[in-house]
Amino acid sequence: MTKINGADAMFKVLYDWHVDHIYGFPGGSFDSGMNAVHDWRNKIKFIEVRHEEAGALAASAEYKLTGKLGVCFGSAGPGAAHLFNGLYDAKYDKSPMVAIVANVPTSRENIDFFQAFDEDKWFLNASVWCRQAMTPEQIPVITDEAIRQAYARKGPAVIILPKDYGWTKIEDNYKTSYNAHVPANFAGPKKESVEEAVKLIKEAKNPVVYFGNGAREAGAGEELKEFSNKFKMPLLSSYLGKGVVEDEFPAYVGTIGRIGAKTPNEIQSYADLVVWVGNNSPFSVLWFNKDTKVIQIDVDPGKLGKRHTVDVPILADAKKTLRALIDAGEDRPESPIYKAAIADRENWDAWQESFVDSDEMPVRPEPIWDVINKEAADDAIFAIDVGNVNVDHCRLLKMHDDQKWTTSGLHATMGYGAPAALTAATVYPDREVWQLAGDGGFAMMNQELLTMARYNMHVLNIVFTNETLGYIEAEQEDESHQPLSGVIIPDNNWAKVAEGMNMKGVVVRTKKEFEDAVKEWKKMDGPMLIDIKYTHEMPYSTELDSLDDPAFVKKYQAEALKPFSYFADKYGLEADAASGASQHEESEPKPDPEPDTTSGASQH
């Protein structure tokens, strides 16, 4: 019987599962793994990142972009510890991945050896499955099991590989379970559930749809649009639901929450029925009235009723369920909430559009994102970092056709953009990849420009330099009402940094300069960085949304925006149908706000 090193047996399992690349950074405890990297170099490409966190975030991004798990590794001690951010990102966003974590030799474990710690205990919470090989012969077995568990539990699986086991010869006779891996095929809804849901839809006065990333995974975009057209329901989404329905669809009013547009935040409290589709946003507990009726569709029973009381729970595939409801229900006329939502959205869109040719300095967001919308290819991929860039992306990028995007959703870790761009360029080498990042987030992972340059990845890195941690600044001002603390960051010439990391860098200050730089990159073969000297003004606050306050209107140049009460009155949306409370009457003067200590941070 032929024998191979334990680490080679691991790579053979990866290859049999059709893994063709792996992210990582070498270390002494992973020498056997690096030997396997060399042995398998013609079959599994090694993407050598400059930081293990980048490798883990890249692996997490892979499933989000492709539906196929990513694989990364780190050495014992600091290399292992650097993986945690990527693992938690994958765990929170339900992204299958495998992390291989090196350990010291078995004879050196549990005696406070160099770079040793109790990896199995530390990684247990950061993963959905974690095992250390107890014998060399177990290595291919637990590798196969790790992949199966990552897919089954939709999260990160961790394999701990002692250094000596990776070098040990074992018999080369393991057969993987790859052929037993089949695509998810969830059941359709029960007839009784469909009948109950259709009854609520028929009786509702002001129904809406609230969908999330589960609708994306179900491929339910067309069904959502047909459902909206038939039952005349506005479409609201979580942030991770952006792109399931193209942004230009008239009844899609956007994302609820701080990063979203004005309309979805205003209409959610008027709804008397919510069709809740594949959505687990934790901030949903803050939205919709407690008496609002809910039809919830999800494939995970643990999600049903988690964020709101539910009247009709449907444990079934979103695409199949929406189709069943469309076929079973009767057409509805346009409701007051439907008319008001579309009119309010049109007002919001026109207001944003009015700034696309603004010559304000530093440059406003709208001119820049207008260029991105016009220049990005129909199949472009956007790697979005975390911060105010999420706000601008959510409100201003018009997703369409085969465009894809990814961000760090529930974990919301800054620095995600560059690693995700590595992934996009690796798995889609023939497509445009745009990294969009604020200067705060970009500063955390900018070393990965070296990786992009090394592999000549066609990535456009756009850094919005506004010299502040803008998202946190707005939280301190609008939520906790405190003096600004720790948010100001120094200006930096990121173009020079890029030049020092072997790629072209450009500083731009105007829409025209940005447009010219983008067109230059589109003619290039490799990566480029554009440092935009961006406005220091904060995005319109949908949390405050005080259009009756002249100071608020002046601050955001919002003279052309109408308060939602205007559209509520116009279309007869008299009161919140769920609670009976009038939502657009004149209110008493409010006292000075107290700090918000209940909602938490980063409401997306």
Automatic annotation (TrEMBL):
SUPFAM superfamilies: DHS-like NAD/FAD-binding domain, Thiamin diphosphate-binding fold (THDP-binding). Residues 385-532 form the Thiamine pyrophosphate enzyme TPP-binding domain. Its EC number is 1.2.3.3. Residues 577-604 are annotated as: Disordered. Residues 5-118 form the Thiamine pyrophosphate enzyme N-terminal TPP-binding domain. Keywords: Pyruvate, Thiamine pyrophosphate. InterPro entries: DHS-like_NAD/FAD-binding_dom, POXB-like, Pyruvate_oxidase, THDP-binding, Thiamin_PyroP_enz_cen_dom, Thiamin_PyroP_enz_TPP-bd_dom, TPP_enzyme_TPP-bd, TPP_POXB-like. The keyword Ion transport does not apply. Residues 194-325 form the Thiamine pyrophosphate enzyme central domain. Residues 583-593 have a biased composition (Basic and acidic residues). It comes from the Bacteria. Belongs to the TPP enzyme family. NCBIfam families: pyruv_oxi_spxB. This is Pyruvate oxidase.
